[in-house]
Amino acid sequence: MAPTIAIAREFTPESELINSNYEHIEITEDDTIPVIDFSLLISGNPKERSKAIKDLGKACEEWGFFLLINHGIPENVKNSMLEYVEQFFKLPEEEMRKFQGKNVMDPVRCGTRSLNNGPGRTISRGYIKLIVHPEFHFPDKPAGYRDTAFEYCKSVREIVEELLKGLCEGLGLEPNYISKAMDLDSSFQRFVSQLYMPCPKPELASGSPAHSDHGLLTIVTDNGIPGLQTFHNGKWINLRPPPNAVMVNTCDQLEILTNGKFKSNVHRVFHTGNTTRISLVSTNGPSPDKLVSPAPELVDESHPPAFAALTMREYYERHQSSSLDGKTILDQVRI
Fold it and tell me: Is residue 3 part of a domain?
C-alpha cells in the first residue's frame, strides 16, 4: 500500500530541483570521496588520531563533505528509524495533520512537496521537520518512534562534538573551542526524515534543490537507495556510501566561524527509479540565540572578516523562508 502523504502540499516547479545556477551540469561518479574513520579520530593512539585530524580538516577544506565509518551509531537503531519513517507516512491523514505546523520556527512541521508538472502532479517528497535540541520534540506515533529517535539524535550530537573537537585541533584551537564559543550544550539540532516516492521517469525526478545547510555539520543516512549528490569541482558527484557509513556535510555556520577556511557543501537529491528512498538528516548548529561570526583567532590582516554576525535563529528563519539556490542565504551575510 502506498504511503499516505497528502497534507500540506507545496507544488515546486521542476526547475527548482536543478536551480538556475546548477542547470545542465555534468553528473559523474567519483571514487576519491574522503572517508574518515571515526574510531581513529577518538583513538588513544596519538599517531592515528593526528592523521585522522589532518584528513578531517582536508576533507572539510577541499570537499565540504566526507563519509564517516565506524561512527558507533547502532545498526539496529538506524534500521528501526528507517522503518519508523515509512510507518509514519502511512498514518491516516487526520493523524498526520496534528503535526502539520505553520511557521518555520514551529518545533514540528510535516507535509509534502510535489512537482508542478502539468495536469498530472506527482508527489515527490514527504517530510517531517523537528527541533530535537535543546528541547526534544517528536511525534508519539507510530509507537516506539519517539524513543528510538531520542537515542539516534543523542548519538549524532555526540559524534558531531567529537568531529568539531578534531576540526578545532586541526585549526590550532583548543579542542573545545567551538563547543564553548557556540554553546553546544544548548545546540540547535533539527532532525528531518524524508520519503521520496518512486519516480521512474528522469524528466519527473523527485528530490530537493541544490543548497547548503544551516548549522555546523549535517549527518545523513538513508536506506541505501541512491539520490544524494554533492557538488565538487564543477560537477555533481553521485554518492553511494557503503552500508556502514554515514554522510557528513559541512554547513554555513562552520564556514562563517572558520572565516571561509572550511566551505559549506552544496548538495541536492535527484531521485529516479521504482524504489522509495528514505533519508534521515540531522543538522547540528550553535545555540539558537548565539551570535555567529568569524572566530577572532582566524582573523588577521591577511584574512579579514568575510562574514557579518547573525544569530543561529535569525539565520535559520532566513534559510527556511527562502527559495534555496546554492549558497544564496550564506551570500546574504558575506562581506
Answer: no
Task: For residues 82-98, give the mean pLDDT.
Answer: 88
Cβ-contact 319, 214 below 8 angstroms:
yes
Q: Are 52 and 43 in contact (CB under 8 A)?
A: yes
4 part of a folded domain: no
Among the listed residues 34, 33, 42, 46, the one whose alpha carbon sits nearest the alpha carbon of residue 72: 42
pTM for the full model?
0.88
CB under 8 Å to 211, separation ≥6 — which residues? 266, 267, 268, 324, 325, 326, 327
| Residue 314 placed within a domain | yes
**Per-residue pLDDT reduced to its tens digit, 10-32:** 333 333 444 545 555 667 777 78
- Print the domain residue range for 316: 9-331
Per mean pLDDT, which range of 31-40, 114-123, 155-164 is the poorest? 114-123
CATH code, 300 = 2.60.120.330
Cell (9 digits) for 229:
549528490
Using pLDDT thresholds of 50, 70 and 90, give the confidence band for residue 112. Answer: confident
Q: What is the pLDDT of residue 248?
A: 97
Grid cell, residue 262, equals 572550511
Name the residue with higher pLDDT: 218 or 119: 218
Q: Which residues are paired to 13 by β-bridges?
A: 116
Q: How many CB atoms lie within 10 A of CB 58?
A: 14
* Range 288-317 burial, b when 16+ CB lie within 10 A, else e: bebebbbbeebeeeeeebbbeebbbbebbe
Report yes or no on 19 lying in a domain.
yes
> pLDDT by residue (tens digit) across 166-182?
999 999 999 999 999 99
Question: How far is CA 208 from each of CA 306, 313, 317, rounded to the nearest angstrom?
Answer: 28, 23, 18
The total number of structural domains in the chain stands at 1
The DSSP code sequence of 60-115 is HHHTSEEEEES----HHHHHHHHHHHHHHTTS-HHHHGGG---STT-SEEEEEEEE
Encode burial over 229-252: b for 16+ CB neighbours within 10 A, e otherwise.
Answer: bbbbeeebbebebeeebbbbbbbb
